[in-house]
Structures are given as structure tokens and as C-alpha cells.
Design the sequence.
């Protein structure tokens, strides 16, 4: 059984476009090299604004841990995270298990 990790970042007002642009230009390639293709990567348009929501599929919690450990051992990722960190107000994570597999 696989699962999806959903991460929601609340951003400072007015920074969502800059965050998304930096992710496209720098973060995406680094993250994809460690985690694979995301299920989705979104910017909120209606409702709670100034949010980035992204989802990643894993086959197990062990696989998630291995991939994320490798990601955070990558100096390029740490440099990128230092750039976007000041834009983030709050982070929430949820692990979603498939019921229709």
C-alpha cells in the first residue's frame, strides 16, 4: 500500500509568486532528483490564500525516510531552503493512505 504526503506551507502575504518562481527555477530539479515526480504542486487561488500545497507518493514510510534523508544531505537543497525559509510562516504535513488501490 502506498501513501501520499501532503505538505501545506502558509506564506507571508505577497510571497507566493516569488516562492513558486524560486521553486521552478531552483528547488524543483533538486527535489525531483531525490523524491521523484510530485503528485502535485499547487498555489492556492480561493479560500486560504498565500499557500503552497504539494504532495509526494511513497511506497512505505521507510522509503519516505530514506528519500528525505538524502534530500537534506544535499548541500544544494540546504542552500535553496535557506532562501525560501524566510517566506514561510507555518508548515503542516499529513500522511494520506490510499483506500482504493
Sequence:
Amino acid at each position: 500500500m502506498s501513501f501520499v504526503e501532503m505538505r501545506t506551507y502558509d506564506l507571508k502575504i505577497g510571497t507566493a509568486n516569488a516562492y513558486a518562481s524560486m521553486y521552478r527555477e531552483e528547488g524543483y530539479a533538486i527535489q525531483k532528483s531525490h523524491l521523484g515526480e510530485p503528485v502535485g504542486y499547487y498555489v492556492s487561488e480561493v479560500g486560504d490564500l498565500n499557500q503552497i500545497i504539494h504532495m509526494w507518493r511513497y511506497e512505505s514510510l521507510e522509503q519516505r525516510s530514506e528519500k528525505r534523508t538524502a534530500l537534506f544531505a544535499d548541500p544544494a537543497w540546504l542552500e535553496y531552503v535557506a532562501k525560501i525559509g524566510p517566506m514561510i510562516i507555518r508548515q503542516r504535513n499529513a500522511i494520506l493512505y490510499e483506500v482504493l488501490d
